[in-house]
Specification:
alpha/beta, 7-stranded parallel beta sheet, 34% helix, globular, homodimer
């Protein structure tokens, strides 16, 4: 892609994973309320994702958008996710259409479907559970943060159907850099390694699609999210699997884990 | 039901249909920004559905809620539906849980799934189209109003899963009092007569359910919405069918038609 790629929420955890793997692959425009630390691999634009003018200016002249910005806390209050995640996401989709950008990858979340798992936990986290979500199911958020992410997916569907925008919604699992979380079956079921995360968003930028909902996790034995749509629509080829980590090993670095950014 | 029923948006068109048929069946508390005209069949509370305190006070002591309030215009701007429909609906669900009310019937809309029909119109409006939506499909709104209604449905799912609230989302079709719209296949496919509307919301108040999405239309030959869930979950027994009206007849009264209220 010759035109710059706009990365909203660039200073967050998912942004870090993407830039870790793809810093040199694209001409980045990095949008966040807080500038990235260190030596950012692209133009930095400081702004709020709910600010129509700031987002409009940031989108101008880009070839695609990866939209990560928003309140990333599963326990966030309604007021915050309603503003930052629901309205912020509408602002980004609207600005993309307005600027003639053809493609938006939207960071949705496992929390959009958290209630399916709650009534099946911990059994669902085991490789023989036989339960699988594939992205065709209706949302069942486990929290208001998840409601906001499901609303973002529906906004994406509208902007695809009505404005012909290519939209992929990535229901991101449990992002952790070097290794899956220990003693946390849920985190092992939905682990997304940094390199698989970067590869997945690379595929979101390079592939051709209309509207897709995919799960963003590594190829974990414990997974209960199907990777089929990500493989088929995006040619996603994950390289990691939480089962390959012995829980007795020490973590390779000091990175903790968190859901999404 | 002995406790009062809170009807938000009581002064709108759906409210009129409900009160037309059920004025004497319940002890009504009528909530709206604009007081109902004429002689309202219950206590009138003037307030805005996005006002936490006003809604909290209105819900207090009621046995169930029918939530109709919101911007009813399919062409409404994002700012309005984001405030009035998305935030307003969260306010109502939250207040219901807070007050210990067990049941909320939410007026969703055919516009939550409008894009399915757009790519099949006008064929889909004919009785031999063979196409049917049943409420298990993912939302595909045809406008931002529809996005806001789909978000309300997802909020309902959350409040059911997490807070054990009984929630039914009624995707209301084309409400018109005495007869279906003429020369308007779409309106004939999704006609909801006043008496079927009142009967349907009566069933929403009297039935036992967990979480349901149902279509709110009369039993029209032209329908492409399934009535199966409404019949099964709510014992809905519609009496009207737009096919029974000869398009040569004069309308029986001066009522126009509109989508929903």
């Amino acid at each position: 892609m010759d035109d710059p790629v706009l990365l909203t929420g660039a200073s967050g955890r998912v942004g870090a994973a993407i830039l870790d793997g793809l810093a040199d692959e694209y001409d980045w425009r990095l949008f966040d309320r807080t500038p990235p630390t260190g030596d950012p691999p692209g133009e930095v634009v400081v702004g709020d994702v709910t600010d129509d003018d700031a987002v409009g200016a940031a989108v101008e002249g880009t070839g695609a958008v990866i939209h990560l910005a928003g309140d990333p806390r599963p326990e966030a209050a309604w007021e915050s996710v309603w503003h930052n995640n629901v309205d912020g996401t509408q602002t980004v989709f609207e600005a993309a259409v307005e600027a003639g950008v053809g493609k938006v990858a939207f960071a949705s979340s496992n929390h959009a479907v958290g209630a399916y798992e709650d009534e099946r936990a911990p059994r669902v986290y085991r490789s023989d559970s036989g339960f699988r979500l594939d992205g065709t199911e209706l949302p069942r958020p486990g929290n208001l943060y998840g409601v906001s992410k499901a609303a973002g997916e529906t906004l994406g569907r509208y902007y695809h159907d009505r404005h012909d925008l290519s939209v992929v919604c990535v229901r991101i699992g449990n992002l952790a850099a070097e290794r899956p979380p220990e003693d946390y079956e849920r985190g092992q079921a939905m682990w997304l390694s940094y390199r698989d995360c970067a590869h997945l968003f690379d595929r979101c930028l390079r592939s051709e699609y209309g509207y897709e909902i995919v799960y963003g996790i590594s190829d974990n034995d414990r997974k209960y999210y199907s990777l089929e749509r990500a493989r088929e629509a995006l040619d996603y080829e994950p390289r990691d699997n939480s089962a390959e980590y012995d829980s007795e090993d020490e973590p390779k670095d000091g990175n903790g884990s968190s859901d999404e950014r």
